[in-house]
Amino acid sequence: MAGGCFGLCRLLRRNRKNRRGPGAGPAQEAEEEVQHFQPLQQDPGRDRPEEQDRARGRLRRAVQRLLKFVGVRRRTATTAPPELPAQPDTSAAELEAESDVSTAPRDCAATSDTALMDGTATFDTALTNTETSSDTAPTDVGAKADATTESIADTDCLPMDSVTDAPSLDILEEKTVSNVNEVPASVRSIHQWLTCQESPEVRPPIAIRRLAHAHPGHVVTTLLHCAPACDRAAAILWRTIASSATTAHKVLPTLLGVMEDWPLHSVSTSDGDHMDVFALAATLALWLMVQEPQCQDALFDYAPRLLLALLCQVSMSTEQMPQEVSTFWRGCQELHGLPTHPNSFVVQTIRALLCRLQWDQELVSVERKRGWDALLSADTHHYAVGLLAREMRHVLLPSYGPLARHLLGLLSTEGPRWELPALAFLVEVLNYLDVSAGDDSVLQILARHLQSQCPERRRLALRGLLVLSGDPSMAKSICSLSELLLELLRDGDGEMVAMTLSTFLNVLQDGDNTDGFSSTAPRLVEALRPVFDNDNSHVQLLSIRLFREVMEVLAEEGTEPWEMQVRQSLVPLFFRWHDENQRVAEAAREALLWATSFLKRKDLEQLLKTEQPFRFCDCLMEKDRSRRGEHLQQALPYLQSPQEPLREAAVRFMGVAGWHMREWQQDLWPILKGLTAMSDDDCPSVSSVRTALVDAYSRAMRRPMSLQQPRNNPGTTSQRGCTCS
Description:
This protein is an all-alpha fold. Among the domains are: 191 residues, no CATH class; 93 residues; 88 residues. The chain contains 43 helices and two strands. Strand 1 and strand 2 form a beta hairpin. Helix 2 packs across helix 3, helix 17 packs antiparallel against helix 19 and helix 38 runs parallel beside helix 40. 39% of the residues are buried. It holds the Pfam family HEAT_Maestro. Keywords: Repeat.
């Protein structure tokens, strides 16, 4: 058909040449252009360079202008009867030629329809065949050329006005769209044309790549709005965009902005179209782009933020799924065969991202530690986020400083949507945050989460403070949070208490921070004594060390105000000296040595140095008569200790205390009650000493153990007995 059209053109030019005479240069030039263009029409290569595409486009438009001009001239001649007599006589061949010319546009349109149906057309040729007003002839014939457009056969997939109104791809390839208001319409036209292409081998239009390079934000938002579920046409466009590294680098920031705004991102296109775009739609677009190897460098530049946005999407889609998001995802799942739940798809996208970046070792490491499964559970998600952040540390190390700042920006606005996953990631990158500028925003964020009702947020905030306390420049600022930390010492979670104690220890290591800490120190000493007996041996060790550090700080202000605090710690530290854990026992002995030196008790200090524990107990009860009852009450709970050495030490302590308190039978009652309340002990030494003491004290009291408790208060009688003695 194309060959017939070009033969017709040559015939017309020959006729015009005969009328005008020899030397008609323009006709000869046009004939040369047609002859040069004809082989390009016969062999439209798919992989031709962009310069050839533009050259062929210019030639193609030149031929179309010629065809339009001939067609309009034919219609003018047939509709102007007064001019007919002036025409010279025409031969039958000329009339036949003019008849063929009048139908040439229809034949070309029919050819275009055939190409659309058999899948051999491209977006370039489709829009060029239907082009009317983009590349017009002179003004006097432009108005009449509309009639030719109406003669083009309709396609089966689009109304003709939706195609003819769209800008030609050839125009977009030759010049940048200067008016951004035209970008959305161009994107929609490209998407509509691809939608009607049934052949899977259709060549992707490169015009979308140029548009995205020049106007990345407008292209991304328009494409997300007109095809949120990423149909086949949109998938081709996203992959075409990703096939250019520079273009992918430009569109990723806009995609990130949509992904970070869960569940909907409100935006307006340049032509005034207000819309809400699903965050998951941007994730779906990213998943398609990741499959193109050309975008690897762009993905690497944005990998930290992409990873963070995806992790937060996993968390939010696990905890909350609005109905509109569920409905949207069902459509995506049916269209692409994706996982049923969005959080599984987002995890799939994270893994695809790591594969594209060739971080196979990190991918396998997280898999081996079952991190991917943990991401899908609301209870373990924060743990998996921290795990992933640690595994990515050596590949993302240069980006962790800026990423920490980005996380602080997210967490500075109150709201539950980002907090837990962002806080979990922040804790892992705090070491790379430059806090030398004195910015207290990080402390404000952590302090807010320390008071949260969510235990996991409190735990993460405390971990963050522990990390910051290792920086001397931050230690002084952490002192302002001492009251909040004191509350955490009463927490039943041993890990929380251990992190609190470690934070206090780090702060006190810098002597410059003691001034801001002195107001909290007395209450801290009082809160530490119960922690000596925590079930966790690590907590016991930290509490004993911290007690000594705090008392050394207080001793610098004078010994007299703090003597009471030190005396009350002697008995608990004495029993920890018998702990099964050698580190705890050694720390307790060192703390006792410091305490006896602080109290100026040389006798007790000497017994500690010679390691005579029960002589220590005897000396303590003998000379500290006014506190015998208090010491006894502190020792009684150790009769029920799960540790055998502590039970044995407690029984022997009861024997020493009973000997010094034997003058008043009422003072023996608490001892006997505690000894008889002990269950049968597997340790023979403990059992034998206990039995002997019960018998001895029972005889001393001269009444059976079934008698009622004396009416006098043990504490009062103890004081009275001590006074009289």
